[in-house]
Amino acid sequence: LNLIQCNSLLLLLFIHFAESGIPAQVVTAIDINTTANQVYKHNFPDTPLWNKTIEGITLDEFNKLSFDMILMSPPCQPFTRIGLQGDVTDPRTKSFLYVLDLLPRLQRLPRFILLENVKGFETSSARARLVKTLTECGYTFQEIMISPISVGIPNSRLRYFLIAKISTEDLNTQAPSKVRYRAMCNKKLLFCMFEGTDVLFKLETTAEAQRKIRQNSNLSVKQIKEFLEPQMEVNMEPYLLPPKTLLRYGLVLDIVQPTCRRSVCFTKGYGRYVQGTGSVLQCCMETKIESVFMGLDQCSEEEKLQRLLKLKLRYFSPREVANLMGFPQHLIFPEKIPTIQQYRLLGNSLNVVVVAKLLQLLVS
Ligand SMILES: *[C@@H]1O[C@H](CO)[C@@H](O)[C@H](O)[C@H]1NC(C)=O
Ligand SMILES: *[C@@H]1O[C@H](CO)[C@@H](O)[C@H](O)[C@H]1NC(C)=O
Ligand SMILES: *[C@@H]1O[C@H](CO)[C@@H](O)[C@H](O)[C@H]1NC(C)=O
């Protein structure tokens, strides 16, 4: 297979393909983001990488590439909630609309397409245009909402995927498109803010707390500890949450232990912002979490801090986030890429295991 990749973070897609065990060659990777391109080049020095926007590529250039599959992850900011029709007028959607416009005019249609986007895309008008174009071009397709939890990875990341292939049957008897929602895992923040007193010792509802307990008891999901770096070998000091952060956000942190079978979605703000950007890890197991949070709001600042420090809370390292995202060990960030940038790239990334499974489904 010859592939072409275009999206805002190519680095990820190529690796998915290698991981899925499908013999394939990437004919070109396209991205305009300098950081993403640096990482990509470092890992795949021999793959042609175009530092361009999609709109900057002509029909002629696309035709010359002669590809069988296109993998794309168009900018997702515009696709948010039901009813918002602004999505296709948002300038960030331009590259996506350009691809849709180009597709029917290609000399040879790619046999396969995989598209990823955020939850909410399924109700956007951009999705409606995509479906129309695919149908007109004679593709059959399937839409899937999936989170890594449903493939046994202890991390929530609910995403929309569309996989399409050229229909070899009579176009008139095409199977209707089908939306399949599989093991939906709610990505909404795992904590709620309350006015006045809270339900439990942390700022979360009973329902949320129960859900966490339920998730942690699902034995078909792996434990967090399988994704951690060897604690003896790596200095975790730089990842500890600073006192200021503990005091300010202690009650809204999503804390997981190495034995947990869940964590919340890591976003590109991880390591910089605390609330809703991803889970933090409790490193000191001797301290019971209840003993820290019980009556914490009545403590003086000093005592609050002393209590919270006992848990030894830290961020997951970029390597560990990459592990949870399914990246193989040989993915390397060049040394000059700062930690914060690494989190940002990972936060914009896709789960490799999920994509690999979808590609297998697509080409099988
Ligand atoms: C590239 O992407 C990273 C991660 O999303 C982002 O922080 C950075 O600002 C982007 N840089 C450019 C030049 O677009
Ligand atoms: C890629 O293109 C951008 C914008 O055109 C430019 O700023 C950047 O220097 C280019 N990067 C490389 C590595 O050529
Ligand atoms: C447990 O996890 C598996 C695999 O991730 C999933 O298919 C199953 O639905 C989960 N069971 C429950 C009760 O949530």
Structure keywords:
elongated, alpha/beta, Rossmann fold, 364 residues, 2 domains, single chain, binds 2-acetamido-2-deoxy-beta-D-glucopyranose, DNA Methylase, Chain A, domain 2, eight-stranded mixed beta sheet, three-stranded mixed beta sheet
Unreliable spans = 8-16, 169-201
Query: What top-tier CATH class of the largest domain fits best?
Result: Alpha Beta
CATH topology of the largest domain: Rossmann fold
The CATH architecture of the largest domain is 3-Layer(aba) Sandwich
Derived structural class: alpha/beta
- What's the total count of β strands? 11
> What percent of residues are in strands?
15-25%
Largest sheet: 8 strands, mixed
**Strand order across the largest sheet:** 3-2-1-4-5-7-6-8
Q: Report Rg.
A: 22 Å
Number of separate helices? 12
Average pLDDT, all residues? 81
The N- to C-terminal Cα distance equals: 13 Å
Number of domains: 2
Helix content: 25-40%
One letter per element, helices H and strands E, the order comes to EHEHEHEHEHEEEHHEEHHEHHH
Q: What's the shape? A: elongated
- Identify the CATH homologous superfamily of the largest domain: Vaccinia Virus protein VP39
